[in-house]
Write a structure and sequence with these properties.
This protein has helices at 25-31, 44-52, 107-117; strands at 3-5, 7-13, 32-39, 42-43, 85-90, 93-99, 125-127, 135-137, 142-149, 152-153, 159-162. By secondary structure, the chain is of the alpha+beta class.
């Protein structure tokens, strides 16, 4: 499988919300209970095949272990989710490192767009997007990731993932 990583700040929703107003900063901030660091994995070959045929490609992100997340980081630590530095390395080489201030869509907009379509419930996890530097990993690689607030590493958000074959009955084949 052609595996790609995408480092993302994740939001843990703390209450049921619908039709959030993106301009109501207090409202959308109150909807967030905590933050996570997540590595959103994608089987690109599976995704590309599904896209080529106009099929849903959720399977490309749905394999076991495809969303490693850190422990929760409180809102007392991340007081401004638009000023968090995210980093990811593969085998000790930094591949992604950027600040959430560079997000294409602000969190209020993301939550507004999502909550127009579906109700967000307590415990839901929302991924906010990835910095430049998305790339591939293979079996045996080690990904490490973290986040910094005010230049200071947040230990609760550290991730270390050893890429390994899962085993099982699934075999990718073009159809």
């Amino acid at each position: 499988m052609n595996l790609h990583y995408e480092l993302e700040l994740a939001l843990v929703i703390g209450k049921t919300v619908r039709d959030i107003d993106e301009n109501d900063t207090k409202g959308w901030m109150e909807a967030i209970d905590a933050y996570l660091l997540a590595i959103d994995m994608t089987g690109r070959n599976v995704q590309d095949e599904a896209k080529k045929k106009g099929l849903p490609w959720s399977i490309a992100k749905g394999f076991d272990t495809f969303l490693p997340v850190s422990g929760p980081v409180g809102k007392d630590v991340i007081t401004d989710p638009h000023n968090v530095e995210l980093w990811l390395s593969v085998n000790g080489e930094v591949k992604q490192c950027d600040n959430t201030e560079l997000m294409l869509f602000r969190i209020g907009r993301q939550l507004a767009d999502i909550s127009k379509v579906m109700t967000l419930e307590k415990g839901d996890i929302v991924l906010t997007g990835t910095p430049k530097g998305v790339g591939s990993v293979v079996t045996g690689d080690v990904m490490e990731a973290g986040l910094r607030v005010g230049g200071k590493e947040v230990e609760k958000a550290r991730l270390r993932v050893e890429v390994a074959d899962r085993g099982g009955k699934y075999v990718f084949a073009e159809t």
